[in-house]
Amino acid sequence: MARPRADRSGPEEPTQRPSAPETDAALEHWEAVALDEAMSGPSGEAAPVAREAPVREAPRPGSPGARPRLVVYDFESAFDGGVLGAKVADVLTGHAARSGRFQTFPEVEQEAILARRPFRASYDAEMDALAAHARDAFGAGIAIWGRVAGSRESPVLDVLALDLRNEKESLVLRERYPCPNLHYIPMAAERILASCLGIEHREEEPPRTVAVLSGNLLGNGGFEKGLAPWSISDAASRTGVAVRGGAAVFELERGVAESTGLGLLSEYVPVEKGAHYECRVRVRSDGPNIIVWVKGYAEFAGGTPGERETDPRREVYRHQMYPLKKGSRGPDGWVLAVSDPFRPRHLRHQVGWMRVKLYAYLSPGKVEFDEVLLRKVAVEGAEGEDERMFDAFEEKGAGGAGE
What we know:
By secondary structure, the chain is an alpha+beta fold. The protein folds into 2 domains: 184 residues, Rossmann fold (3-Layer(aba) Sandwich), CATH 3.40.50; 173 residues, Sandwich (Jelly Rolls), CATH 2.60.120.260. Helices cover 21% and strands 29% of the residues. Strands 5, 7, 8, 11, 14, 15 and 17 form a 7-stranded antiparallel β-sheet that branches. A hairpin with a 4-residue loop joins strand 2 and strand 3. The longest helix has 17 residues.
């Protein structure tokens, strides 16, 4: 969803953001990080979300019980012409909508408002002017803006926020959020939004594995027998993936790394209802970023886009990890990463199968995968999983609706 943008010349200037393929290849995964893993809709279908009501007269800013209307202006990011700053604004607004604690705006409506009432929300903008614009143009109760310092690889978010719900606005946030890499931005977004409301943000502890209940459920997880039964995905051509030295090797050229990336999918593995699993993998990279997904599938009529026409399975669930961030690195450069335990599930659909996807993207270079394990585990600390799933689903459905 697009966010309010800083005007650079006048109301008739196009609001199209600058493009940066090398950035978007990584940022397209942010929303998957932000979403509760159990709430993904089937491929080709959006998970049910309540439509946002059209803007009408805003409730009185300080009225009891009203969720504040939030406006997030595009952040500045001088090092890339505003591309990453615009993405940061998108992440903040998306998290706010799904939290159920804010009112947000449909994209078309925001664009129309800014076309009528342009404003440049620079980091050093006069707060009185910004407050007046947020109130008069959007009926906002909270406004967030800022800048991205550092670099694309290690961004630092300088964030400001005004509370406009009282007669005199107040600065409720002026804070710096260093992010070791792009994937920390969604976590920073949660802390920023909690601070705007004056509440404590708590990270939920994942379940803990206490026993391994199965061997490897994947066929040829060590690639001793070549690639089969793994299959190549994402790349326009089927070149760039091979088995050498007992490992799956990805050779990413720049054009592939900055667009589709390279992926490798395992065979379908049956899911035992109510069971928890974990995924382990060894990886080594001389440049590209890596994501490992476990995708869950349910049976639908009509087939899965990209699969053979007779296949009725569609993706409805995903669990992901970033091995280079999560794992421990050995002296030879290999990283061993183990996922948190997960239970493939969906609010409306029975997850019947799962597949592991190995994916490399963003930068050219070589990536190696080996010893990919998917196994059933016993856990503790999983109490309340379903309740959290239902709560998250309800919050997502309420996220953007007007009061």
